[in-house]
Design a protein that fits this description.
5-stranded mixed sheet; 5-stranded antiparallel sheet; rod-shaped; about 575 residues; single chain
C-alpha cells in the first residue's frame, strides 16, 4: 500500500505531515528516527509551500528479508520526486494499520497531532538527556583520565629528572674517582722515580720534569746549602721565605686559595698577578729548601694541592737519603782508597793494579788488593772481596789486610794464609764473609804457588800468548761456619808470563753470570801485544778494563792486579826497577 496526500496549502501540508507521523508510529518506527523523519519532511514541505503549486506526499512500505523499509517521497503533482527519505529495520509493516488519507479538520485532531508531536519531542528530549548525561559521565571520565595522564607525565618527568641527576652524580663521582686514581698513580710513580735516584742533583732535576706541565707551569727549587748562580741574580718570593721560616706551605696570590693545609699569604712581591705555591722541602730534622710552583691554569684544584704537598714531602726525604748516601759513599771510597796498598818494587816482577768504585748503588768498600814481600824475599799478591758494602765492609777489609800481613811474617804459603784468615773471620762472627785469591812468587824459581777461597780463578798468559784459567778447585768462602783447610796449588811460570787477579765486579753481569765474563777477560788478555806487557803494564791494565766495563754501569767495585814475570832477555840484562814504590789506582 502506498498512500498519497495532496498538498495545495499549509493545511494540506499539516495534514500530510500528521498522516505520515501516524503511519510511522503505526509501523513501529522509534521516536528518535520518527522525529528526524518528520523534521526533514516538514523542512521539505516548507520549501514546497514557498515555491507554490500542487505537491504530493507518498508513503511506501516495503518488506525484505532481514529489513523493513518506510519510504516517504515529495514530488510535484505531475512530476518526479524531488525529495525522498527512508527509515529501515522496523516491525513488519503488514501488521500495521494504514491511516486514512483524510484527516478531519477540527481542533481535536490537530491538538492530538500536536500532543503526539510533543510526545515524540519529549521522548527525543529524554533520550537526548540520557545521551547528554552519558556524555557528561564520559567527559568526567575523560577529565579524570587526562588528570591521571598529566600526573603520570609529571611523575615520569620527575623520575626522568631524578634519573638525570643520578646519572650526572654518577658521572661526577666516576670522574672524581678517575682523577683521584690518576693522582695516586702519579704520586706513586713519581715517588718511585725520586727515591730510586741516589744523586741529589738528579732529584732536583727530576721535579720540574715530573710536574710541568700537568700540575705546574713553572717549578723553582731553592736549596739552602746550594750556591746560587753567580751569573744570575736570584730573588726569592716573600712567600718562599715565609715557608722556609715556618716550615708550612704558603699560597701567595691576590685572592684566598682555600687549599687544605696551606696558609694564605698576601700577593708575592715578584709576581702579584700570578699565584704561587711555596712548599718547604722537609726532612726528619730540618728544612732543606723550598719548592715554588705556579699553577698550570688560573689556580690549583684543592686535591691537586694536597698531592703536591705530599709529593714535596717525599721529594725532601728522597733528597735527604741521596745526600746521606753520597756522604757515606764518599767516606767509604776515601777510606777504601786510603787502605789500598802502594805496590812495591820487586826485582824480576812488574805489578800494576786498578781499583774502580761501583758506578751505581752503595756497592763500594769490599774489594781490595795487596802486594808485599815476605822475609825470605817471596812476593805475596792478593785480591779479595768482603761481602756487604759501605763503611762496615771497608773496615772489615782493612782488618783482613792487616791480619794477612801479620800471618805472612812467618813465611806461610797461600793455602795456610787463607786458612788462617778463615779462622780469624769465623772467630769474629760478624755475619760477614769474604773471598780471596793469593799468589806467591819465589825468587829464583819459575813456579807459581796459589790458593783461592770462593774467589774467581786467576787467568795466566804464557810467553807464547796462550791464555788459560787456573781453575783448580778452590776452598769455600772465608768466615762461613765450616772447618776447612784450604789447599794450595803450583803452576809453571816461565819468564814473560803474566798473571791476572781480579774480583767478580770485573767479570760478572746479572744477565750473563760470571763464566762469560771470565772468557771475555781471557780473550782481552790474549789480545794484548807482548811488547805492551813488557813496556807499559799500567797501560795494559787500563786497556783490559775498557772493553770489559764500557758496555754498562757496574753494580760492584772492581779490582784488577796484573803480575808480569820478566822475560829471559830482560832478566839477563838486569833491567830491574828500583826506587820509589808505584801506586796502584
Amino acid at each position: 500500500m502506498n498512500p498519497t496526500w495532496n498538498v495545495n496549502g499549509v493545511t494540506d501540508a499539516a495534514r500530510a505531515r500528521i498522516a505520515t507521523a501516524r503511519l510511522a508510529a503505526a509501523c513501529g518506527v522509534q521516536p528518535v528516527e520518527r522525529t528526524r523523519l518528520m523534521a526533514a519532511l516538514t523542512a521539505q514541505l516548507r520549501q514546497c509551500l514557498t515555491k507554490g503549486g500542487a505537491w504530493a506526499v507518498t508513503a511506501r512500505t516495503d518488506a525484505a528479508p532481514g529489513e523493513n523499509r518506510l519510504t516517504v517521497e515529495v514530488r510535484p503533482a505531475d512530476g518526479r520526486p524531488v525529495w525522498q527519505a527512508s527509515v529501515v529495520r522496523f516491525p513488519d509493516p503488514d501488521a500495521a494499520p494504514v491511516p486514512s488519507a483524510h484527516v478531519p479538520d477540527d481542533e481535536v485532531t490537530l491538538a492530538e497531532a500536536l500532543f503526539s508531536a510533543d510526545e515524540d519531542a519529549g521522548l527525543l528530549l529524554d533520550q537526548l538527556d540520557e545521551q547528554q548525561a552519558l556524555v557528561g559521565f564520559h567527559r568526567e571520565e575523560l577529565h579524570q583520565t587526562n588528570q591521571g595522564v598529566v600526573a603520570l607525565h609529571a611523575e615520569l618527568d620527575a623520575a626522568g629528572e631524578r634519573q638525570r641527576e643520578l646519572f650526572a652524580a654518577e658521572q661526577s663521582a666516576r670522574r672524581e674517582a678517575e682523577n683521584a686514581r690518576g693522582r695516586l698513580t702519579f704520586l706513586a710513580d713519581a715517588s718511585a722515580v725520586l727515591t730510586a735516584s741516589l744523586d741529589p742533583d738528579a732529584v732536583v732535576r727530576l721535579l720540574p720534569d715530573l710536574l710541568v706541565p700537568r700540575y705546574a707551569r713553572t717549578v723553582d727549587v731553592w736549596l739552602f746549602d746550594a750556591p746560587d748562580d753567580p751569573h744570575r741574580a736570584v730573588a726569592r718570593p716573600a712567600a718562599a721565605v715565609v715557608a722556609a721560616r715556618r716550615g708550612r706551605p704558603q699560597y701567595a696570590a691576590d685572592h684566598a686559595g682555600g687549599l687544605p693545609g696551606v696558609d694564605d699569604r698576601p700577593p708575592s712581591a715578584l709576581a702579584p698577578d700570578r699565584p704561587l705555591l711555596c712548599v718547604p722541602l722537609l726532612t726528619h730534622r730540618t728544612t732543606q729548601g723550598v719548592l715554588t710552583l705556579t699553577p698550570p691554569e688560573e689556580r690549583w684544584d684543592p686535591d691537586d694541592a694536597v698531592m703536591l704537598v705530599e709529593l714535596t714531602r717525599r721529594a725532601g726525604i728522597a733528597l735527604e737519603n741521596a745526600r746521606r748516601y753520597e756522604h757515606n759513599r764518599d767516606i767509604a771510597e776515601t777510606l777504601q782508597r786510603a787502605l789500598l796498598t802502594d805496590l812495591p818494587t820487586v826485582p824480576g816482577i812488574d805489578l800494576a793494579a786498578r781499583y774502580l768504585p761501583a758506578t751505581r748503588g752503595m756497592n763500594i768498600g769490599g774489594d781490595w788488593y795487596d802486594a808485599f814481600r815476605q822475609p825470605d824475599g817471596s812476593l805475596i799478591t792478593v785480591v779479595g772481596d768482603v761481602t756487604g758494602h759501605g763503611l762496615h765492609a771497608a773496615v772489615m777489609m782493612s782488618q783482613l789486610r792487616t791480619a794477612l800481613r801479620a800471618y805472612a811474617v812467618d813465611g806461610a804459603g797461600p793455602g795456610r794464609l787463607l786458612t788462617q784468615l778463615h779462622q780469624f773471620l769465623h772467630h769474629l762472627r760478624l755475619d760477614l764473609y769474604a773471598t780471596a785469591v793469593i799468589a806467591r812468587f819465589r825468587p829464583g824459581t819459575a813456579e807459581l804457588t796459589w790458593a783461592a777461597a770462593g774467589h774467581p780463578p786467576p787467568v795466566l798468559r804464557t810467553p807464547d800468548g796462550q791464555v788459560r784459567t787456573l781453575d783448580a778447585r778452590p776452598g769455600a768462602m772465608l768466615g762461613i761456619p765450616l772447618d776447612q783447610e784450604i789447599a794450595e796449588h803450583t803452576e809453571p811460570l816461565p819468564p814473560g808470563s803474566t798473571l791476572a787477579l781480579y774480583t767478580d765486579g770485573l767479570v760478572e753481569r746479572r744477565a750473563q753470570g760470571i763464566d762469560p765474563g771470565i772468557e771475555r777477560l781471557a780473550r782481552a788478555l790474549s789480545a794484548v801485544r807482548p811488547g805492551d806487557l813488557a813496556g807499559d803494564l799500567d797501560g795494559c791494565a787500563d786497556g783490559l778494563l775498557q772493553p770489559l766495563l764500557d758496555d754498562s754501569e757496574h753494580d760492584d767495585d772492581v779490582c784488577l792486579l796484573l803480575c808480569r814475570v820478566h822475560d829471559a832477555e830482560r832478566a839477563r840484562t838486569g833491567e830491574e826497577r828500583d826506587g820509589v814504590p808505584r801506586a796502584g789506582r
